[in-house]
Write a structure and sequence with these properties.
The chain is α+β, with helices and mostly antiparallel strands and 192 residues long. The chain is built from four helices and five strands, in the order ααβββαββα. Helix content is 58%, strand content 26%. Strands 1, 2, 3, 4 and 5 form a five-stranded antiparallel β-sheet that branches. The longest helix is centred in the first third of the chain and has 78 residues.
């Protein structure tokens, strides 16, 4: 029995030894062959992290830039669309005369009318008369509509003129009342 016991112990020792050799071999293989791959993966991961940090910094800079643009737009929006305190009448009519001549129209008359006052608003009215071909008058009216001034055509009458224009077309006369708006100050609104 002792011999069987010795054989069993020897078999267990051999199995344990084989298991230890297998584990040591696996560890050696992982350390020698798989180790280089792991180091490369760690380096690659470090590069990816560095790229992500650069992207994050770029996004933060972009966010700061967008915040600055947003603040500028909000400031423009807060002041944009507000009526001017004082209407640049001379500049407006210089531009209007230039638009009329650009559209081959003659300015016949330009007279101030009595202003009107409303709470917080002053309407300065002007009689304006131009003559020319009908298509030119229509383009002129469209240009007034697209102008960047606080102005509006509050009256329009187009009559047949007595003269023949270029290319035999009949000249028309457009009589307009142009209202130019500005915000009223307290002292002006009490006087109006």
């Amino acid at each position: 029995m002792k011999s069987r016991r010795n054989v069993s112990v020897l078999m267990i020792d051999l199995a344990g030894g084989a298991l230890c050799i297998g584990l040591l071999g696996t560890l050696a293989w992982l350390a020698l062959f798989r180790g280089d791959r792991t180091v490369a993966e760690i380096r690659e991961l470090g590069g990816t992290i560095a790229d992500a940090r650069r992207d994050l910094e770029s996004l933060r800079a972009s966010l700061d830039e967008q915040r600055t643009i947003l603040q500028q737009r909000q400031a423009e929006l807060a002041t944009g669309g507000q009526l001017p305190d004082r209407t640049p009448i001379e500049e407006y009519f210089q531009t209007l005369s230039h638009v009329a001549s650009t559209h081959r129209l003659r300015v016949v008359r330009h007279n101030p009318l009595s202003p009107r006052s409303y709470p917080g608003l002053i309407e300065q009215r002007y009689a304006y008369e131009v003559s020319g071909a009908m298509p030119d008058i229509v383009r002129f009216l469209k240009a007034i509509e697209d102008a960047k001034f606080w102005a509006d055509v509050s009256y329009l009458k187009i009559d047949s003129g007595s003269r023949q224009g270029e290319a035999g077309s009949r000249e028309r006369v457009a009589s307009l009342t142009i209202s130019v708006f500005s915000s009223s100050r307290e002292d002006e609104s009490s006087n109006g």
